[in-house]
Automatic annotation (TrEMBL):
SAM-dependent MTase RsmB/NOP-type domain: residues covered: 176-478
GO biological process, one term: RNA methylation
Protein residues bound to S-adenosyl-L-methionine: C288, A289, G290, P291, G292, G293, K294, E313, D344, D361
Lineage: Bacteria, Bacillati, Actinomycetota, Actinomycetes, Propionibacteriales
Record protein name field: rRNA cytosine-C5-methyltransferase
Amino acid sequence: MPERPSRPRPRGTRPGQRPVGGRPPRVDVTRLAAHEVLTTVRTQDAYTNLVLPAVLRKHGLAGRDAGFVTELASGTIRRRSTYDAVIGACSARGLRALDPPVLDALRLGTHQLLSMRVPAHAALSTTVDLVRHVANQGAAGFANAVLRKVASRDLDDWLQELAPAREADPVAHDALVHAHPAWVVAELRKALHASHPDDDVSDLLAADNVAPGVTLVARPGLSTRGELPGEPTPYSPHGVHLDGGDPGAVEAVAQRRAGVQDEGSQLVATALAGADLDGRDERWLDLCAGPGGKSALLAALAAGSGAVLTAHERQLHRAGLVRRNLTLADGTAVPGAGAVVVGDGTRPAFAPGSLDRVLVDAPCTGLGALRRRPEARWRRRAEDLLELVMLQRRLLAASLDLVRPGGLVLYATCSPVLSETADVVESALAQRRDVSLVDLGPAFAHVPGSRGPLEGTVQLWPHRHGTDAMFLALLRRD
């Protein structure tokens, strides 16, 4: 994990000593920036990965400082429940009595003390200064007392004291140790054991807590994998794992001939584009296209087959992101890209039986992408599932109506939860005699351990494949 870069101390002070005189100490800008990220994510339901670049630009942070802020903010959000348990054990007031800005600062300090290579005196003094800045002197004294108790033990010791025994309550144990809500642990355990009964869910939960690297995708006909810096991805023929640096500085990415895309998402597009199809193969549709990463790859693949991809998105602002992804930096369209249509995916404005291939990358809980969206685990609730599943079933039913006899629909979710994956597909198969499941096993023979919960489906896993936990099912209209 990044270590806080050293900064010059005020003249005449020792490490950890505050400058003398009447002026209050200046708050460390990297801690202030990380606190601003936490505040924005908490108060505006924002996404960490979208807030970070704006905050870094605002404070003029780059290089090691930017890396420090990214790890501090993302890591703190990711492990929030674990840190809250530790803070609660060190505070007689209880978490509910703490003002949110003070609690956010304590979380940042706890992450530095327990999970980063930051000297204890630096973590303590800078966090106390931060609390004084966002609250007052009294709160700063309280924070100092709490964090000294936090620093008295390492993370393993705290977990041993606070977590219930795994033998007695495995869900509660894993929820605290790996910082996932208990209902999420239970759903992921059930989903993992449906495909891999011998896997330990703790390996999956631990993988969720490792920030993913950057993966690039070369869009066929526009760029090649060979011109992208990095190690080729093991499963997608179009990707590389970026060695480091800013992906926007890569020429092909800047020109939008290539993009940033998880390998699992690349495999969704290639699975639909590469599936055998009898007869006409001219009209493709991405039904839930926003923000457009899969659309851009699908369009490039469609162009190579002489087809045209239409992108469909319900939300107007997300449709704008799709258009951007389907447009090169010089203003020309990505080859194979057709119209971007705004509308309701459960009632799309296309003639029944008029399409050849349709991708339904359905809205879901997103529990397969917790590595890159650390805040998602704390926002989703178990009660969200029913509404999402009903939407997923309607979207799949609509897409099956759109394809011609012999046409293909790929249903995908960035969630392994069984009610969003196997149950949705089984429901569609039970309700329609004109639909059959196409076996994706041969196409994923090069991806070991990718068998899904239904025979012929695919389930990718962070701990097995280093990808988001994408589910894929290919259906044919008979």
